[in-house]
Fold:
Amino acid sequence: MSTRVVIGAQWGDEGKGKIIDLLSDKVGVVARYQGGANAGHTLKFDNTTIVLHLVPSGVFHENCDCVIGNGVVIDPVALLQELDEVKSHGIDPKGRLFISESAHVIMSYHKVIDQAKEKAKGDNKIGTTGRGIGPAYENKYNRGGVRMLDLLDESSLREKVIANVANVNFSLKSLGLDEQLESEPIVQEMLKAGETLREFICDTGLLLHNSRKAGKSILLEGAQGALLDVDHGTYPFVTSSSPTSGGACTGTGLPPTSITHVMGIMKAYCTRVGNGPFPTELFDETGEEIRRIGHEFGATTGRPRRTGWLDLVALKYAVRINGINELAVTKLDVLDSFDEVKVCTAYEISGKKTDLFPIDGKVLAHVKPVYTTIKGWKTNSNEIKAKEDLPESILSYLKFIEDYLEVPVVILSTGPKRKETLLLHEVN
Structure:
């Protein structure tokens, strides 16, 4: 029995959905523990492509229960649309999907204020998706938020909506906007959504506890990436929750002592969406080539991702703050055609070299990456079917990563499809 946290070890978009989908075949439960519909986990199988935003990536394995934990902020309307899409692929989540009664709800007024505040920031904008994630978490922590259980209690829901709409209308007016929201249409929309979702809402913390007692293995699915963590990421250009392994406990109700493995998902290079420091970012033809080959556009927003060489300094920091003890490397195939591959192994700050990741974003924005150049493998890696067939050049690249991070690479992904995956070490 294992309880494994699967996290993005970079700035998100590392390919977590595919890896979790693969691992879900061997577990009893997959649970999302933070984030909202800003996540976009892309699954490709049987000539089918589906992007999941809220539903855990284990939904396509019929023996696997799926949990949306208390740490997730849920847009009920978006969730219902996503469930319809899942059903269109022949999967009925009834009896397998469980939604935490204490998960907070993204309301329409959260989206309105999110977009209004982001626009008001001008050049200083964070680069949010505008889906209300940040305001929903703000509402949660100022203790005025709506929870899933409130959707089943009309009086509680109406009371909270009226209070929140008054605050939002005040904020909109202070931003110089004439738009003013009405409470009752919002109440009615949420009551309708709550009634539809009633059968899925329960005490998921207890469910996970009982699953462990029953000997089931559990996967805890993070969204975004460790370097976007609100406490440990490149603040203020971060998400509003805790994608780190620590967030897996607070976001599900499982105790820290239950965690047996922390798997970090990393691309063979780096990407980032939105603003914020990105030491190895490429602004040249190489960066464009990586974006083109890797189809680096946001699964949720469609925004082009910023691209850069692999940053081992940043990854070492992610390993440290998460306790990562196994790695999955994705999108190796994107680098197949390059004669040389560069890897950042240190930063130069004010003329001095360091392998420490500076938490001060202003410092990080001005570091000079120090690169080690590695000979490319010039091989169609997605045609390799067994680890024994990996050429020495790819093995050397992986060994370089392992030696620097002191963590084994257990999974290698060489394409978006399930079959384009190599298991390098046993995953228990």
